């Protein structure tokens, strides 16, 4: 059944690419007030496309910010599964414009790549889904599954209104599973299943001593130095083996099994030394850097400040010092419990003579993970391999995608991340691009996938 | 012989106070370009005064900044000792002006105190010396000792040119001992000998990891966090008992003997809790807060920074982190050796995966100490007690006065600190004032002192 749709994509490839270029030419920069009309125009593009294909109940839902586009296809009938497809049509600003080799909003193909802001993140990948729906409709007159489309316009500014909308429209958006194509593959033409993302939480520690900065000559020897105190607290939280030394931190961690560790070791990854300039990697004792980044929780101090930061010397005992800490969590760990453990630890080790305040980060999230053996995942791997002609690799990533956590928390349904970007796409940077290979084979993957799902 | 001079001071008290007011009315703010002419006028005031008294070789020595006033009295003859008297005629800015209860440059007496910028620091105390020289000259026709006067106009901006001048004019300025009146007493009307000041040195530690800030999700677990590494380094340098844990740090420290510890405990001091707002004092294990501030070396982190310091959260592994450290040193300790020990320690404990750079502070100084039993000190104590009618207390202070270290290092002569300020003088702050008691009894002390020295 998929053959006709595949053929349609091949036959219409130039026209589809041109149509994508129209989409990419709209500077839908959500963070910039000047582009408010452009953002709205990009929403209209999606609305028109969905209507043209034959979707129902297509709406441009207004929010407090930029609109969200919704549409449904119910033609597969009540017995077929329904997928919620999420994506975003807004883009990052193009600045610094000077560093672009071609206009960010005049798409240009060079060296097998399509250069334009949004080509990879996420307009290009959203468009591929729409084109595949079109292919099915034009050739078969139907799509193998029911679809609910949710394409927002505020992803690049933190999805400010989406969280509330997902709650409010729960009935409307509910589906059997969700598909998101806003991520990448381990390497170009390397089919990749991203089956895990980390959760996230954080605290801020402020140590306060004297009520004003003190002369170190007059008071040094009588007053606890808040920076020294903070150093002791921080040093007690992670040791030189990169092991977090906070009681209970690892208690609920789902251990990595041998299968997963093998997957992680086999996964293609970047050369950390080359991309970061460090002299050697370090990772939790007993785990490789790959295992730690992908599958073990992390503890990072993201920022620290206190006292004098200018040129030269100022001989003070500062009044206070602050450190910002975030942790990436793995399946099993509860962000609220982790925050409590961190706070208890800080209070336990806090020295006398200073007051220590712990502020808890509001935005916390559990880790996301779907079993690599889940049928929805197996089918994705099969589809990838058919399209790219290569074995699919399985990755867990150290990052977090808020919308994934939200959909999982609110809808309690499996989420499949079907990403086609590559590490060289330069998301958020000048000269963003997307490989035409990913465009072509990605659409093929989607054709196979809906076909597999239907089976 | 001192009786006549004492009587002269009493008889001329109102006129002298009026003359001091003329001196204080000149806004000789050295840091403010707008006051350049005023600073020069204040120098002229000193020049005129010295000439009027009958000093020889009086000069206004131009420097790259503000002038230095020099003058000599050689009338005591070649067998009498020569004192180098140092002081400064420049003052701190008066800002914030609104917080003054009277014009900072229109001296006003309230509640037994003379309110004016510079009344205590240091014009008032310089004037007292000049008035005492006048008293001797007008009554006896001579001063009991030979005098070299060095009054600079850049103390409040770091004595930028003085260090070079002290080297260049070594022959001209050489004396048997030096007297400086730019400090205070432990309490009002409490004769105090400041017989020790701490030395000073410092280092700056910068830990560098990746060559740019990294996404904590992508790299957390593979890259050493520079702030975590810095925390470990810092925490290893001073423990919770306020003991510096750097090998050799205490090696050359002259131990405090029982006599000194008794002096320190008896010395009146401020209420640390009240003036700093801390809940309890902390000090080196085995020493009281007074002993530590006055007589034991200190280690302070004056500032720290690295990574994200803004509102909320930024999930990065920062590229680098920096801490500024200074130590106050006691007699026996060599600043250069201490810097080396600190550097060796840092290099020893530096973890892998980051580079650690230690920058050494250029301005280092040994501690200053004169034996309380030194004849010049004994005589000072006797003079204080005669004037104030109270036993003299002996203090070592945690602070450093650069010019004291310089004179000691360049001229190798004893230095006597004859201070008459009080803890309530509000130096550098609005409503600076000087007790009239200190003015009257301080001049008496000086009359007695030159008389004692002559004996």
Automatic annotation (TrEMBL), chains A, B:
GO molecular function, one term: dipeptidase activity
Keyword Repressor assigned: no
Enzyme Commission designation: 3.4.13.-
Residues of the Peptidase M20 dimerisation domain: 195-352
Enzyme class: hydrolase
UniProt KW keywords: Dipeptidase, Hydrolase, Metal-binding, Protease
InterPro entries given in the database record: Bact_exopeptidase_dim_dom, Cyt/Met_Dipeptidase, Peptidase_M20, Peptidase_M20_dimer
Pfam families listed in its UniProt record: M20_dimer, Peptidase_M20
Protein name in the entry: Dipeptidase
The species this protein was found in: Oceanobacillus longus
């Amino acid at each position: 059944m998929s053959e006709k749709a595949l053929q349609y994509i091949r036959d219409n490839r130039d026209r589809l690419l041109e149509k994508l270029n129209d989409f990419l030419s709209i500077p839908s920069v959500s963070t910039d007030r000047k582009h408010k009309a452009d953002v709205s125009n990009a929403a209209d593009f999606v609305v028109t496309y969905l209507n043209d294909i034959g979707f129902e109940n297509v709406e441009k839902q207004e929010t407090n910010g930029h609109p969200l586009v919704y549409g449904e296809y119910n033609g597969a009938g009540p017995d077929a599964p329904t997928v919620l497809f999420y994506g975003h049509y807004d883009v990052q600003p193009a600045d610094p414009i000077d560093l672009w080799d071609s206009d960010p909003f005049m798409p240009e193909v060079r060296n097998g790549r399509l250069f334009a802001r949004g080509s990879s993140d996420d307009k290009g990948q959203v468009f591929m889904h729409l084109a595949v729906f079109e292919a099915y409709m034009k050739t078969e007159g139907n799509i193998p599954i029911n679809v609910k489309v949710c394409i927002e316009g505020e992803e690049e500014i933190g999805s400010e209104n989406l969280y509330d909308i997902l709650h409010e429209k729960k009935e409307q958006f509910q589906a059997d599973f969700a598909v998101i194509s806003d991520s990448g593959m381990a390497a170009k033409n390397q089919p990749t299943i991203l089956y895990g993302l980390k959760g996230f939480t954080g605290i801020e520690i402020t140590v306060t001593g004297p009520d004003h900065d003190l002369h170190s000559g007059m008071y040094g020897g009588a007053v606890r130095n808040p920076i020294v105190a903070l150093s002791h607290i921080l040093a007690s939280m992670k040791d030189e083996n990169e092991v977090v030394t906070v009681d209970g931190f690892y208690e609920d961690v789902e251990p990595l099994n041998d299968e997963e560790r093998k997957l992680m070791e086999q996964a293609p990854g970047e050369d950390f030394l080359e991309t970061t300039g460090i002299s050697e990697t370090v990772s939790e004792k007993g785990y490789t850097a790959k295992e730690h980044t992908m599958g073990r929780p992390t503890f990072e101090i993201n920022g620290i400040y206190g006292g004098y930061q200018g040129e030269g010397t100022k001989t003070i005992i500062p009044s206070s010092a602050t450190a910002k800490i975030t942790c990436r969590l793995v399946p099993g760990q509860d962000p609220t419990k982790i925050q409590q453990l961190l706070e208890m630890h800080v209070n336990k080790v806090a020295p006398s003579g200073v007051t220590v305040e712990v502020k808890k980060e509001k935005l916390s999230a559990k880790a996301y993970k779907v079993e690599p053996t889940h049928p929805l995942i197996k089918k994705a791997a099969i589809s990838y391999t058919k399209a790219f002609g290569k074995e699919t690799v399985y990755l867990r990533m150290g990052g977090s995608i808020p919308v994934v956590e939200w959909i999982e928390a609110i809808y309690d349904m499996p989420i499949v991340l079907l990403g086609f970007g590559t590490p060289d796409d330069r998301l958020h940077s000048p000269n963003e691009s997307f490989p035409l290979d990913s465009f072509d084979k990605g659409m093929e993957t989607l054709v196979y996938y809906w076909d597999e799902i239907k089976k």
